[in-house]
Amino acid sequence: MSVIQVNNLSVAYGDKPVLRGLSFAVESGEAVLIQGPSGCGKSTLLHAVCGLIPGSIPAEISGRVLLSGRDVRDLTVAERACEIGIVFQNPDTQLFCDTVEDEIAFGLENLCLPREVIGERIGEVLALTRLERLRFASPKELSGGQKQLVVLAAVLALDPKILLLDEALSQLDETGKAALTERLHDLRRKGRTLLMVDHDGALSSVATRTVDWEKEWL
């Protein structure tokens, strides 16, 4: 069974159609890159896949998105958080706590996990993202690349089966890009399912398969 199954998906904001009848599947352990020009609808696609559309972002939607065989619209917020996580283009939109540790703990606490489990997961993702020395630092004081790694750590702490990346390298300098790309290679080698979008092929080295938006969906 595909972990992501998109069937005839269309999305419109009011009278402005953005996606028209898209269908594709992602298998467990794949790292799929969807590459296309800015403004073509890549972010809208990821928002629909993870349930932000229509759950949090108003839009007209038809077709279906299935995560491990279940319609994403039938999942609770907690179920979606454990099934799929997303890293946005601008890390500042996902950071709001006083310390890196608090950022990672926030989602876990909202799932009402035992304190010892929360502590274990924080330690695990700090090690995975190599952020141990920044555990008690303020995210506001970090570089762009470090902020993006904190967001990644916070998402991974929820242990989602699927990770979405929306132009995650676009605002980083070369050092930040290298650090995040290396972590994504680690995740791919560990069998994590990745669905990534970008406009310039920056994540092509991570991908096991690339979809060209203009050739396949325009």
Describe the structure concisely for a colleague.
It is built from eight helices and nine strands. The chain is of the alpha/beta class.
Structure description:
This protein has 218 residues and is of the alpha/beta class. Helix content is 37%, strand content 25%. The protein has helices at residues 42-49, 52-55, 77-83, 100-110, 115-129, 144-157, 174-189, 213-217, and strands at 4-13, 16-26, 31-35, 60-67, 70-71, 84-87, 162-166, 193-198, 209-212. The chain has a 5-stranded parallel sheet with strand order 6-7-8-3-9, sandwiched between helices. A 4-stranded antiparallel sheet has the order 2-1-4-5, covered by helices on one side. The longest helix is centred in the C-terminal third of the chain and has 16 residues, at 174-189. The protein is globular, with a radius of gyration of 17 Å.
List keywords for this structure.
218 residues, alpha/beta, 5-stranded parallel β-sheet, 4-stranded antiparallel β-sheet, 8 helices, 37% helix, globular
Which sheet architecture does the biggest sheet show? 5 strands, parallel
Task: Please give the share of residues in helix.
Answer: 25-40%
Distance between the termini: 27 Å
Rg over CA atoms, rounded to whole Å, is 17 Å
Strand line-up across the major sheet: 6-7-8-3-9
Instruction: List unreliable stretches of 5+ residues.
Output: none
